[in-house]
Input
Amino acid sequence: MSKELTKNAIEGITPREAYQISLEYFKKLYNNDYTNLVLEETEKNKNFWLITMSYVDLIDSQFKEFGYASMLNRHKRKYKEFKINSKTGEVISMKIKTYQQN
Output
């Protein structure tokens, strides 16, 4: 991590710190193959922060540009959920999160 976390033995890391950790982790894995990265949700339980971010996958969008049917979903958002240890700031997991369209 590039910045020292303001850890508190009782409260742990803040939502902003959990988001920043998720953001840095995502950027290391995806380089510049995405656009429009957005924080969608934060949730805290006793031991973890769950941070959901959405983005547009540029590589996926480029390949789909050539097909007519894909033009409607050209910039479809993808979602990732990060599980962050609320005491240490360690990334426990990054998962694909799906939402159903109404």
